[in-house]
Design a protein that fits this description.
alpha/beta; 3 domains; SAM-dependent_MTases_sf; 8 helices; EC 2.1.1.220; Vcp-like ATPase, Chain A, domain 2; tRNA (adenine(58)-N1)-methyltransferase activity; 311 residues; Rossmann fold; TRM61_C; seven-stranded mixed sheet
Amino acid sequence: MLPVDPTKKISFRRCICDGDLVIVYERHDNMKAVKVCESSELQNRFGVFKHSDWIGKPFGSKVLSNKGGFVYLLAPTPELWTLVLSHRTQILYIADISFVILFLEVVPGCLVLESGTGSGSLTTSLARAVAPTGHVYTFDFHEQRAASAREDFERTGLSSLVTVGVRDIQGEGFPDEFSGLGDSVFLDLPQPWLAIPSAAKMLKQDGILCSFSPCIEQVQRSCETLRSTFTDIRTFEVLLRTYEVREGSVECGGGDEAGSLLSRPFKRRQRSSEGSNGRDNSSSPTVMARPSGETRGHTGYLTFARLKCLY
């Protein structure tokens, strides 16, 4: 996932080794993180998979079970890790995460401050964005959650890029040692307006803050606090709509019902093969598209603001 340790680079080209973390892909809605151990086995509905058969294969490989079933072994990228991590808290998903990283202008070498850590979904992507020379300092007031997140970052090879601290940022603010050093700050707190004054002190001139809130009332109060020291204040709601596109068949017997079905804008008839000799078929192959039933709706509001320059 990240070229952190020169002796153990994780990429799609590297072969799987004993002790690696892999994402076992059964289908798009069924994946799990597994640590490879030469003497271990994975059992699922497709059969028994020996870890020893995985070692030496490149990430992305298709491996077979004793019954002939198969799974894919994928690299633990931040995108996949977000889908398989333990949900200790509500997490940010890919649409919000990509938006946050873009608008916070996070690039390699940045120093990013985050509160709270939660399940570490965003933190994982922030770490990849600042690699190899940047760093993410993330804080959570809950000691056990922070410890669990720290273990996850060890598993995914991010421990050299992420430091997890236990601290009540709402009550205490960020540590003074980061004053004026932060390129960006991310807040995911119940009362973010309490942490905004401290966040402003942590940022470099022209630094950017982002606050994630599920309720618009939180956004309104945060914006009131931001106006004193920040400018370019903007709030977004990221709504992502995915589609299922697959081939099916529709009846084309010539009736009104069939005609109306084929005229729908999300269906496109494919040309019949030349070998049909002009004969009418009871059905024809059709590419159909429809909104996915798993589309996520509202997750929260993202408020961005840039620190005012003093000179």
